[in-house]
Amino acid sequence: MTKYYNSQFYSKPIEVENIEWEIIVTITNNLNRKIIYSWYDVIEKNSQSMYINKCLLWWFIKKIPKKVLIIWFWWWAFARFLEDHIRDVEITWIDIDKSMIEIAKNELKIKTNDLYISDALEKLDSLINENKNYDLVLIDAYWADWEIPKYFEEKIFFEKVKKVLLNDWVLSINFSNYDLLNKEKNIFYNKIHSNLISIFWEYYSHLICENEKIWNIAWIYNLNKDYNESDFNSNYIKNYKAWNIVYNAKILENTRIIKK
Questions:
Q1: Closest CA to 192 of 132, 134, 151
Q2: Domains and CATH numbers, the chain
Q3: Which strands sit side by side in the sheet containing 14-19, from one edge to the other?
Q4: What is the pTM (predicted TM-score) of this model?
Q5: CA–CA separation, 68 vs 14, rounded Å?
Q6: Per-residue pLDDT tens for 14-51?
């Protein structure tokens, strides 16, 4: 069964397919590109999205997060995964698009009631004033034309993120359309990256989330040491059973880490 959600940011409705055990969210952005935004298996309690899985690969190294802040979209599947696998996890979700929140609640059955339709900068101020702190911050913020909001270029945004992030935890941010071979294309991303490494700890990792053409990279900041591929792989093999997820050798085969 397919349902449609109208968004003020997309010219075409967002499609949600609920096919027995699968929930698939598809958008057509303003560049007329149709993309599967989220894909969750409610039986296996896992996502088949390589991006989601590769982000999860990181958390096998850290402690299990209990308080998570999600800024904008893409994270439906990850939010559902966390709620399915972590007892009493607390998720706070900020999104500027009402339809995204509706899909999270109505289709993926996200349990948290801590959902805010708000500009991220404004809501971060509110969280700071309330002395809120989080183990993990996930950011995937794009307009419908596939551009990152311009205020990401300003250090003040990530300075606010750091204020709500507990010292020994990390920020994961998705840089969509990042191209390792095209420096000119990545000027905007690199400016954001420079701000991030000036605000957070010295160490960071870049997990490539595609095989050949680089389309998504999960950038992980605020690390307390330098990690390499063997760290990621050995921890995945060691700990995947603890999360009760299906072992996926392909995640390890194509995992690469970009260092400074």
A1: 151
A2: 49-258 (3.40.50.150)
A3: 2-5, 14-19, 22-28, 34-41
A4: 0.87
A5: 25
A6: 999 988 788 988 888 777 888 777 788 888 888 766 65
